Amino acid sequence: MSELRSVWLQELTWEDVADYLQEQDIILFPIGSTEQHGPAGPLGVDSYAAISVAEDTARKTQVLVAPPLWYGDSPHHLGFPGTISLTTETLVAVAKDVIRSLAKHGFKKIILLNGHKGTNLAALTTACRGLHEYELPDVFLALADPLFLAKGISHIKESVEHHAGELEISHVWYKYPSLIKAAKLPDTQVDVRTIMSDFVHNDLFGKGGDSIEVFWNSAEQRKFAPSGSFSDSSKASPEKGKIYHEYMVDNLSRFVEWLKKYDGIIGND
Amino acid sequence: MSELRSVWLQELTWEDVADYLQEQDIILFPIGSTEQHGPAGPLGVDSYAAISVAEDTARKTQVLVAPPLWYGDSPHHLGFPGTISLTTETLVAVAKDVIRSLAKHGFKKIILLNGHKGTNLAALTTACRGLHEYELPDVFLALADPLFLAKGISHIKESVEHHAGELEISHVWYKYPSLIKAAKLPDTQVDVRTIMSDFVHNDLFGKGGDSIEVFWNSAEQRKFAPSGSFSDSSKASPEKGKIYHEYMVDNLSRFVEWLKKYDGIIGND
Amino acid sequence: MSELRSVWLQELTWEDVADYLQEQDIILFPIGSTEQHGPAGPLGVDSYAAISVAEDTARKTQVLVAPPLWYGDSPHHLGFPGTISLTTETLVAVAKDVIRSLAKHGFKKIILLNGHKGTNLAALTTACRGLHEYELPDVFLALADPLFLAKGISHIKESVEHHAGELEISHVWYKYPSLIKAAKLPDTQVDVRTIMSDFVHNDLFGKGGDSIEVFWNSAEQRKFAPSGSFSDSSKASPEKGKIYHEYMVDNLSRFVEWLKKYDGIIGND
Amino acid sequence: MSELRSVWLQELTWEDVADYLQEQDIILFPIGSTEQHGPAGPLGVDSYAAISVAEDTARKTQVLVAPPLWYGDSPHHLGFPGTISLTTETLVAVAKDVIRSLAKHGFKKIILLNGHKGTNLAALTTACRGLHEYELPDVFLALADPLFLAKGISHIKESVEHHAGELEISHVWYKYPSLIKAAKLPDTQVDVRTIMSDFVHNDLFGKGGDSIEVFWNSAEQRKFAPSGSFSDSSKASPEKGKIYHEYMVDNLSRFVEWLKKYDGIIGND
Amino acid sequence: MSELRSVWLQELTWEDVADYLQEQDIILFPIGSTEQHGPAGPLGVDSYAAISVAEDTARKTQVLVAPPLWYGDSPHHLGFPGTISLTTETLVAVAKDVIRSLAKHGFKKIILLNGHKGTNLAALTTACRGLHEYELPDVFLALADPLFLAKGISHIKESVEHHAGELEISHVWYKYPSLIKAAKLPDTQVDVRTIMSDFVHNDLFGKGGDSIEVFWNSAEQRKFAPSGSFSDSSKASPEKGKIYHEYMVDNLSRFVEWLKKYDGIIGND
Amino acid sequence: MSELRSVWLQELTWEDVADYLQEQDIILFPIGSTEQHGPAGPLGVDSYAAISVAEDTARKTQVLVAPPLWYGDSPHHLGFPGTISLTTETLVAVAKDVIRSLAKHGFKKIILLNGHKGTNLAALTTACRGLHEYELPDVFLALADPLFLAKGISHIKESVEHHAGELEISHVWYKYPSLIKAAKLPDTQVDVRTIMSDFVHNDLFGKGGDSIEVFWNSAEQRKFAPSGSFSDSSKASPEKGKIYHEYMVDNLSRFVEWLKKYDGIIGND
């Protein structure tokens, strides 16, 4: 197959897409958020994460990327100006509609790439599980996310990573250097264990011991994390961002290449 | 007020937005689509229209723009690969959630900018009317669209404008020149009157005589407009696109400036 | 075909309807509203418009009419006693259920006749577009409305027509003379441009220049239009109502006759 | 209070309604159906029942009536041409929207009058119970229906009354004589006990012994009641219709008069 | 067929259920509530009623029982601590999902057993009617309830039976003796006629004269029935509970045996 | 506080609950599933897990337990007879209604105890997050699950634990010995990595390396795990079940005791 004019679906004509579908049926769908990321990170951090990993993976593996969704499930960040949150129900509906449209055209392997945004996972899981059981049994659906895609490289960080942490800030810094306010990177960390019990953990990349989930809302978050950041991101750097980014692109590319050749049970029933 | 670091909300930190809200409460929200635009236009035509007018208006008037929505209400285009359609209900839900989030932060004047995408209007109208009556009586909501914003300049086109027509192709050509396949611009037009009666009109910018709306679906469209384009866009040009674009930016900027000083009944009840 | 016992479906037995369907598959579905129409017009103005045009068109063309829907999408009129408003979502649901039922029996050409009630259009369009794409591809769905059906005759009015305007008042006056309080016809007009910017137009039948939609709610409307009427209807008359009514009946009848012979793409895919 | 110009809300102006609300806060809301009623009865039987009882009660007690809803919850009749059924969910939504609108204007005592249509009761009960608990605790909501309002007079019938039975046919015959095809009145009865067990009863007005509800659908009904009627209505007559009608009007009027003076706990909490 | 290891589905393995389905396709689904039942009855009265009748019927007839639903539609009891109410919409959804799952496995005859809980009936009826018409035409659905199943034995009670009445208290007393606080059984009765008009009846098992339904909410109920009980249950006894219970088990067993041999129209279309 | 008559809410009267609320505001809400657990485990395994941990924790800490929900989100198990699955949306609705009811009575600290059922987590998280942000900011909501509550003890198992694994089988065996068919315990394991890529892990309790979620449906599961079990549970034993159970009860009890004294930010805003 000759090189794609663009990996972004929205830049192509429908005839380009028809040509692509003659040879390949994989597409990436990046989902981010518009939510506060502390005093140093732009509101689009999660979207930039999803967009950049999707785009670089797509270039490397020559598959298409659907236009990004800039909005996620972020109610607990609504205490900070600029956060835009869909409800979980709306995010489910958007994800389902996008996947249905892609499936109708013959995209049979669809990879959702979520951008370091744990609270999106309930909606995206709901959408994929429901569609695959009840509507699209012959479509392979997968969901990738930095929190799980980059476990193996998380040791490069020097601090505890929670919201607006060292790795996700480094990531954006590497790919979109002008968007990080380096002078404002916080060097303190919120200790959620004092607020939500010992069963809640500070590090999203941690191995975790016993845990219980405790739910907090936007007003509470504004109180216990008044800067918006939960994390010490003073050790963030574009260099770390590069390592982290490339690790994820490598992982996801490996998965895409595996999927190109896949003819197992899933989606082929 | 000093110049904004960026007009795009997603590029700012929450503190930047908080600063902005000290002085201004207007924001633009661009809504496009990912739908086929014939053999020459990219799938993102409507999104590019919304994004470019929003961005240039925002720069000119120094107001903010929310991240764009790349998906619209495009079921009748689903017969062509690459089209991604939300249902009307989903689009209503997204628009409501975005507006609610913005309103919560104190954006009291929100302008939806739809990108030449008539079928989005039912959903966007539903969202705005419902919110303003039942939830957000104190928020001024407006909805702009090239079809109505550019009536006064539509005389520059030389052909009948329907889907993928001369003006919208020119628009993208001017702002994103690499995305138009000039060699593929169609020079024929679908005559919808022969298919849907004399009460249906060929020109979306036309003054219209008596009319009745007839609904068609994606399979039917694929039949009566097999190239995807309804319009002769062979007269499209970046030059026309520039005139059209600037006319819309001027109009919308005029509205924004009026709105900055507005203290009438709407949203102030 | 012998003359129908009644054009109203609800007056017939199911066997009458079965007989009709042997020869014809067209039906009209009138949708109105129950909303204030100023000090002179009854709350049912829009419903009477839909009912009378449907009934007279049906008699002229010998097609059936479904029972009318007396409720529409009128939230912005809820500030005046007697207005009954469905939400947009409910109106979509009702329209879909009625159309589905009719289609199940073999009505393959269904014409919604809305009664001069612009805000109904979002819901009715949503219902028709969604059904024709996803559920009823083989049913021809059309939507007529005085605002578009009577453009060619609107020159008979002598004043600017907005809510409760000269033409719709004349219409009811002609068909239901006892329901207009002639002594209370207002002779002033609300200038919406002063309230909602120059981009909003005063005349619903106007050709319109550049425009932007601004949304208002019931509390605001009560303030800027305290009588309920937006329009000077002092020039209304039964004579104008007759001309307007017959023009619409003629137009719609012409469409029905065209549709009787139609075997084009729409609904026949 | 002087006599009302009309008891029908839709025939009044909003000022008339405002005047009424100065003195009275009761309104009737008639709900019918459009569903087959055998070879002799028109599709609108249930609607005519609701409309006529509401109108005559309103005249007698000088209270208002909201415009009728012509559509009900009739899925099991969809096997016969002309039946139009809302889903239960849609009927709930319509009833809630109408009641909410009326309550907003100050109607504090709202009586739903259902027209001999048992399957509507689930939806109407759902709407009233939900609204009164969660949204409108200070509105008195009541639901009347011929099946319960006329128990005391049902002895005048000479046959077993089920769908399209002697009493409801008589009722329409009395009020709308031209709509009954007397020559087609069936003289046989469907014995539902042979089809659905001894725990299902033949007479809707019966006292009933032990019972279990069995659900049937439109295809099944078409089989076991091929004429559409379940009942022997050969003994129907306008005279019986008059007795039955007046009995219901008397009962409902008695309730309205009681309600005018009511200041007990319900709706006054 | 050999005796079942257990009549409760949840105690069996899927292989046990597969074996059962080789020979039988009937299942009972008990639905209760968690709502106050006065000072003497536990919150689970309705659930215990459903569970015990289902279990004993199942043992007697050797059919399966699905796990019970402990929550019902009880908004009007929310004024008393401990009541847990689903909305009607949620109860519809649960009932539909459970029935759909059972039908998928080949249970073709499903009997919902509601536990003396009239307000559940709207939801359960809505679920069954909708499913049988639109989704599961080949499944026989029935709905039983003590209020209708035990009419013929209700004469054993000595008092007027409304909420928390003599029979339902006796029932639980017989089956779960430790759960009734005998010393707290009320000996007074709420006269609903004084509160809601003569058209509302005191005895749920009564034959009823003319009636109109009046809706009350939880705050109102707390006022007119401050103990939670509407009924004099001082005559309740385990002995009466035994008679009542066995009567229902006998009736339901008779229905199950009839259904085992049923091959009529319902569910076989 | 004297010992509770019962820890189960449904066994108490409303007055008992009112008394409890004078002193304590914590309640546990157990949520399970009815889904196949291989040839040896009963369909109720997850429900029994939730019920037993909730009950024993409640007894130990003297707090109340709400009636259990026997149904969960189990679409991928619908290929095996007996599985009953709610949709994710329905489970969200049930959880929200139950929590709303409890909160209305003054339960301010509500702990959902899910029974080893990962797919329930999307719904339960959605319910809790949404309620705490938009409706119940002053209620502390927590979600516990064996998968996270018992990490620290998972080393006692000798095999890879996935669906129907050694630990959950041991758990039921310990608490409900008659419900495990010991002779049928499988001694083989499904290797999901061969089916869904190296990015999917075999052990639910594992520490996990990089991972990507792949969604499978019921038909696919029936193919790759024809016995229903994914796991070798031949090493299961009541003794292990006891250790595992007590570890969870201890952990949850520790959390409950901490919560009794909690007066931090969450739920106190």
UniProtKB/TrEMBL annotation, chains A, B, C, D, E, F:
Cofactor(s), by name: Zn(2+)
Pfam families named among the record's database cross-references: Creatininase
InterPro entries: Creatininase-like_sf, Creatininase/forma_Hydrolase
Entries under Gene3D superfamilies matching the protein: Creatininase
GO MF annotations in UniProt: hydrolase activity, acting on carbon-nitrogen (but not peptide) bonds, in linear amides; metal ion binding
Keywords: Hydrolase, Metal-binding, Zinc
GO biological process: riboflavin biosynthetic process
Protein family membership: Belongs to the creatininase superfamily.
Protein name: Creatinine amidohydrolase
Taxonomic lineage: Bacteria, Bacillati, Bacillota, Negativicutes, Acetonemataceae
